[in-house]
Amino acid sequence: MVEIKTNENLAAMREAGRVVARALAAVREKAAPGVPLTDLDRAAREVLAEAGAGSPFLGYRPEWAPVPFPAVVCVSVNDAIVHGIPDDTRLAPGDLVSADCGALLGGWAGDSAISFTVGPARPEDTRLIGAAEEALEAGIAAAVVGNRVGDIAHAIGRVCRAAGYGIPDGFGGHGIGRTMHEDPGVPNEGRPGRGMKLRHGMVLAIEPMLIGGGTDDHYTARDGWTIRTVDGSRASHAEHTVAITDEGPRVLTAL
Fold first, then answer.
1. Residues of the chain falling short of pLDDT 50
2. Between 20 and 30 A from 147 (CA), which of 38, 78, 111, 199?
3. DSSP string covering 203-228
4. For strand 173-175 and strand 203-206, is the pairing parallel, antiparallel, or unpaired?
5. Which keywords describe this protein according to UniProt (predicted)?
C-alpha cells in the first residue's frame, strides 16, 4: 500500500530530511586518515540527538539479517557497496567512503546517502562517484507526476551502464514516509513506462549503487550485513528522499 502524503506531511518530512543532511555533513567532516569508522557513527548520533530525532537504522532487523543493525549510519568503504557496519577500522588516505543515514522526526522518516574520498581522490574514484550522482540526478528528473516507477529505474540504469559500471541486482530505492521502507520498490534498472504511476504526494528514496569493475556480482560479508563487490572493485552510492509534486520533484534531504 502506498500512502499519499499531504502538503503538511511533506513539510514535516522535509524537517526530517534536513536532519539527515546535517548528519551526513558531520560524517563527511569527521572522516580523515586514522579516524575509526565508529567515530563517524558517533558524529551522526550527535546530530540526531541535538535534533531530538530517532534512527530508523539503529536496531533495524529485516528477515535476512542475522543481528539488528548496531549503528545509526551505514559506512561502506572501498569494495563495500552498502550496509557497512561502522567498526574500529581506521580510514586511510584515498579510501572511498559511502555513508547512508536516516532520521525519524515528528513521526516521519528521511533517508539519504553520499560517497566521498578521504583526502585526494584517484581519477577513477572521482568518475565513479560522479556517475552515481549523475544517475541520482537522472532518477530525480524522471520522478514527475504521470511518469512511472520504471521511468526512474530506466533513467538511473542508462547512466550507470553508459559509464560502464555494474548495478547490484536486488538493491535499489523504496517508498518512504512514516517508516523508512514502504512501497513501492524503485529498482536501479528497468524498462520505461512500467510500474506504478507517480502521483502528487508520493515520496521515494531514490538510490543508485554502482560497481566500479563493471560486473553486477556481489556477495554478503560474514557480518551478515555488508554487501561487497566480488571482483574487489570499488563502489559508490548516492541517495535522496524525493517528493513527487505537481510542481516537479522536491528533494527533501538536501542541505
1. none
2. 111
3. EEEE--EEETTS---EEE-TTSS-EE
4. antiparallel
5. Aminopeptidase, Hydrolase, Metal-binding, Protease
